[in-house]
Amino acid sequence: MKIGIGSDHAGFELKGKLKEHLEAKGYEVVDYGTHSLDSVDYPDYGKAVANAILAEEVEKGVLICGTGVGISISANKVKGIRACVCSEPYSAKMSVRHNNAQIIAVGARVVGEDLAKLIVDEFLAEEFEGGRHQRRIDKMLEIEK
Ligand code: RB5
Q1: Model's pTM, two decimal places?
Q2: Mean pLDDT along residues 79-98
């Protein structure tokens, strides 16, 4: 599976660790930046990964900022994208099973490296259940119109 990853400066170090972790597990990871600790604006990276998913450059996305909040809100502004900020694995798992989320976001100032890896692993291991959950996603898509 091809994964797009992106962060702002606050998530830069954790992005590198998650990228390494995912590559070790056999995922192909495309890095949409940022590429240094210099201060940048998280919407640019949320947007880049969200657009990469819509363009089918990558299948899923991982975003990191200080809290995971700003970068997930930014990704969710792209129509058709469901990005969830999670601080524990259960929500990460259910965000795929029930919400068919394409992007997981984590806060580098909220969760430690090992917890972030667990969250991302749960997210990538799951599949959408469909059925009644698709009806609810269709309603979300209606709201976007
Ligand atoms: C950057 O200082 C910080 O505001 C950003 O990483 C993020 O936490 C915003 O939601």
Answers
A1: 0.97
A2: 98
